[in-house]
Amino acid sequence: MTEHSSNNVSPKTIEQVYQPMTRRTFLKGSAGAMVGLAGLVAALKPLLALEKGEISLDDLLQRHYRQLSPADLQRIMTQLEDKCAAEYGVRPTLQDLKPLEGVQFAYALNLTRCIGCRKCAHACLAENNQSRAGEDDISMSYIRVLEMQKGAINLETSTVYYDPETVPQKDKYYMPVQCHQCQESPCTKVCPVQATWQEKDGVVVVDYNWCIGCRYCMAACPYDARRFNYQKPTLKPEAINPNQNYLSNRIRPKGVVEKCTFCLQRTRAGKYPACLEVCPTGARVFGNVLDPDSEINYILNHKRVYILKEEVGTLPRFYYFFDA
Amino acid sequence: MTDYLTFLWRVWRLSWQGGWKFYVWMIFLSVLVLVGLNAWARQFVEGLATTGMTDQVSWGAYIANFTFLVGVAAAAVMLVIPAYIYKKEHMHEVVLFGELMAIAAIVMCLLFVTVDLGHPDRFHHMIPPFGIFNFPGSILSWDVIVLNGYLLLNLHIAGYMLYCRYRGKAPTRKFYIPFVFLSIAWAVSIHTVTAFLYVGLAGRAYWHHPLVPARFLASAFVAGPALMILTFQVIRRVMRYYIGDKPIFTLRMIMTVAMLINMFLLGSELFTEFYSPTQHAAAAHYLYFGLHGHDGLVPWIWTAIALDVIGLLFLVTPLSRHIVGLNIACVTCFVGIWIEKGMGLIIPGFVPSPLGQFVEYLPTLNETLICLGVWAVGALMLSWMLHVAIPIMNGSLRADPHAPAPALNH
Ligand code: SF4
Ligand code: SF4
Predict the structure, then answer these.
(1) Measuring CA to CA, which residue among B330, B298, B395, B388 is closest to residue B14?
(2) Closest alpha carbon within chain A to B145
(3) Is the whole-model pTM more than 0.90?
(4) Is B45 within a domain?
(5) Do B121 and A157 touch (CB under 8 A)?
(6) A22 — contact with chain B (CB < 8 Å)?
(7) Which residues span the domain enclosing A252?
(8) Ligand 2 environment, Cβ below 6 A
């Protein structure tokens, strides 16, 4: 191509480029470097407020849950117990319950019976150690109870902030929503680091020590079932449930995602989920679908069952049904 | 080898030499970077509670800017294609600047993803062998690969070209031509994969829409060239490098076509959403008109549309044959598309929430400062790269100062 006349440079610019370093430029440079360094230190000052041990070499080197040897896991769990005792004033007993053989959990909820009392949402908090600002802060509960207009199943006209004197209201019905433990779970598919996965019994869990907090899984979940720890969880000692499990209700660090695990710390030990136990109307049915005599199996085979957002194709393990 | 070290040493020396204007500009940007870093340090300690994001709107300004900048980076191909495929001579004098801009944009993208993480200290979990890659399931894993690949490609091409020019040698075709062609395909892929991040989510009706990737590309090819046109004018004004009007007007043509396609796709989308509104149109309704008393995004989107339309009017009429008119078009299109991709695409994906709740989102001050800081990093990088590249391009920095200046076309 033709060189533009203005692109021709005079030798002077070449001299400039190779300008030798002089005492003066050296001093100027050093002074500039000092100022820059001071600015950098000032900018990073907030990091001083980091709690001791918040980022340890151990944490940085820890492997994914499924790569940990039993001994490693035991050591990590002891460390977590110590940490909880130091930070929250309660020493939990941390376990790692594995999925039971021949068990696949499913949950069904009777929409005819539910009265919208939100007892399940509160029981969830008491069981699962979510962060909360005060007694009636249920924003981190894994259960959102929707107040729906009778006459349709329309989420768009629903509200979670209902607050009447008494429930149920005459023209309303209530639909609690929690993680559906989808068989085709979009949340586990999108996670870039496999920090969340589906266990053999169908429960979708999160490794809180592996999650990088990208929140892609939250964007992927069609049921708004995931909660993020935007800050370090706040919990009073008396609010802490000390019976904790590594993949479920242990107190989470800040910056990770958490979700309903069908209370696996209970259900893998043969108990019912906390939300079922507390429900005053018996609207909730939980059990093993692989067991032909279970109540859940009876309901799935005999009742009019409704699957929320079936069109999204996630194949939930959570069902709604209606009484005859 | 020593040649190369001398080269690096000279580039390093050159980085610190400039007139007072250069110093003022670089110090100004550095201060912004430090302010952003400070805000990020605060966020690192306190958590993402310092942002305006919530469980319902779990992505905000960071991801919006990230998405936009992927487009800017991809737009470098709009210089590469005419220069290498159509062998347009006049594009050769500027193609390098497009590549440098892509490098800066990708670095900004990676920073925006990083500041969005709740646990940036676990970043290595994404990089095997330290971490686990959820491949090929997670589109985010794909995105990490393609973004870093694009960064490396551009670093190689730009670095190799500059080094050859410095040595006064013609570049060897086999060392760059294959990479140039790869980078063309790759540029399309970074943007497509980024669009798939959103389109792939069946649970979000507003994103789960086959037009989204097409609109992504179209709008990227408006915003990217707009920024290039503006940058080229800065280069020819304040630096010792002449850029003629020809490349600028080639870019104008590209912008015009891309903007027409973008507006056409927008029209189709609006028609589908509003002619027979289904329940899925709730997000679009909220975005354009407000819904159930929530209308936080309405002013944003109409500003964006107004800017887009003004830009388009300037582009398709002779108004933009004049450089002032063209600059107005560039600024309006750039800002318009920036809003469209952020407040107009990312946020409505979350409002209403999948359970029908309306939680609105506005970035906090701290979040805004972090965004500003990341943009400042990009501007700083681009300014620095141009500052050292231009003396090489115009021949004032060469291995042997007595050799004649090498020709530009290769
Ligand atoms: S409901 Fe949401 S979080 Fe639960 S498995 Fe399905 S997609 Fe995942
Ligand atoms: S937030 Fe955690 S669990 Fe969710 S996708 Fe990101 S890394 Fe995976």
Answers:
(1) B388
(2) A192
(3) yes
(4) no
(5) no
(6) no
(7) 118-261
(8) A 190-191, 193, 195-196, 206, 211-217, 257
